Amino acid sequence: MANVSVAGILRAGMFSPNNVGADAAILNSVAAKLRRRGITVNLYSEEQFIAHGIGGEQIVMTMTRDERSTSRLHELEDLGRIVINSGYGISHCARGNMVKIFAREGIPQPDTLVVSTNENIKGRLEELGIERCWVKRADCQTVHKEDVACARHAQEAQDLLGEFFIRGIRTATVARDISGLHAKFYGVVGTDFFHCYLSRADGLQTIDEDSLRSVCTKAAKALGVAIYGGDVMIDPISGSFSIISFNDWPGFAPCREDAAKGICKLVSSYARKLMKR
Asked: What does the alpha-carbon distance between residue 253 and residue 97 come to, in Å, rounded to a whole number?
């Protein structure tokens, strides 16, 4: 595969709050594995990509999240480059878009409103019987820790929206807080890699991994991303669950080596297809 080349684009630090090292580590690990397979990999920072683009690499594996990066990815895809994760998929992972896609596709999620931050939402929350809830920026994933906040009641949610508005964030999601057991999941569509684990070991002996994997795969395909991770709340009695976050290309810190193998397998499959053309 010596004549197949891959561009790897690192995520800008501002989009990796408290995860700069983990985000860089997973991309570097995948790059090392691809190189051992004879595939040329050139790494770029997100800032380099925004300012100058990339070379002639046929495949782009990207962790970018800046809107300017996403715009460039759209252009590359429209010109026929293979982009993993798709720039269009990354756009779909902005929370406001994701909530609507999940609702359309029947992906289990908490009751969630997508609202303007200058909107009065207290009446809508009361109608839905929502008190304790999570307020999150809707235009992208988390950039600052203040982009996600828990409100104890409708008035506090309203106050948080006002703070978002002052910060220049124009849309937000407001999701019902649900009780249960918290678990994290990671996957790579098109490979055998899927990993999930409870954040606490008590209360539930096993997770219905097959069911969770099936729903996560459906969610990833609906969004248009192959490499993903997220969080889910599980009812300890029924085992039913709701996805509370879903991220394009996380850092995979708890399972980095296995995830890197899965991502390498995915990218290599595209490289082989290119070789056959």
From this structure: 26
